[in-house]
Amino acid sequence: xxxxxxxxxxxxxxxxxxxxxxxxxxxxxxxxxxxxxxxxxxxxxxxxxxxxxxxxxxxxxxxxxxxxxxxxxxxxxxxxxxxxxxxxxxxxxxxxxxxxxxxxxxxxxxxxxxxxxxxxxxxxxxxxxxxxxxxxxxxxxxxxxxxxxxxxxxxxxxxxxxxxxxxxxxxxxxxxxxxxxxxxxxxxxxxxxxxxxxxxxxxxxxxxxxxxxxxxxxxxxxxxxxxxxxxxxxxxxxxxxxxxxxxxxxxxxxxxxxxxxxxxxxxxxxxxxxxxxxxxxxxxxxxxxxxxxxxxxxxxxxxxxxxxxxx
Length: 311
Fold this sequence. Notes:
Blueprint: H1 2-14, H2 17-26, H3 44-56, E1 60-65, H4 73-93, E2 98-101, H5 112-129, E3 132-135, H6 143-155, E4 161-166, H7 172-182, E5 185-189, H8 204-221, E6 226-228, H9 232-244, E7 253-257, H10 262-270, E8 275-281, H11 286-294, H12 299-310
Parallel strand pairs: 1-2, 1-8, 2-3, 3-4, 4-5, 5-6, 6-7, 7-8
Helix pairs in contact: 1-11, 4-5, 7-8, 8-9
């Protein structure tokens, strides 16, 4: 219950325009600012610098230009062009060609057809330059339409894309089976949005149990799944199942968020596992940052101390 209250609290903060303006003014002001624990910076140069360092350490990465729920088609087009520019910069920098994006960032809340066209523009460029594109999952009102759009792209031959499933949604076991049937690559996460009990498990135990069930399904029958968690128990369950089934470490990967559990990231890498870091950046970082804080009640004190230091 405490975790759910914390999550709801930070989601409410994420919708505050006043706090967003304040955060935009102070949150990235200097390298030691509180938001930089989770976000590498606001511009492409900062993102590429962080990506080079991560890659040099032996870790894999995916770059995410933060943004969601744009207000109009002009903003959706701008986000699409920003991603195309990002891909050009990644190619020039010689770093791993792997990106993540959200469909509401491309205009899904305004016009489905236009958002699909924008996604196709990105996937066409990705095909040309040998990128992998992960379509992130957002809150539950967008789950079905996101899966439909992803499957449409898949059926049209865009096989350089993957999808995300959230273990706290009651539907995700069935969705995982469908993605396995398609042959699509899935990133499994627990889920960071506030959801009603009708569609999502509310207790940590239920979310964890679903995560273990789906991870086993993906490892046994999936296609290079990504097990994305910072929870040692979930990592241990995945490792034990893979060992029991003699599933080689090169048939799946672990993923974690930038700035979280670097010790576990290094330990997995040293143990011979594939470990990818989700690297977010961009000016629209505030909602993402609030979701990260809402995942643990202890983060409330962390952000308050950070804000006090900024002033």
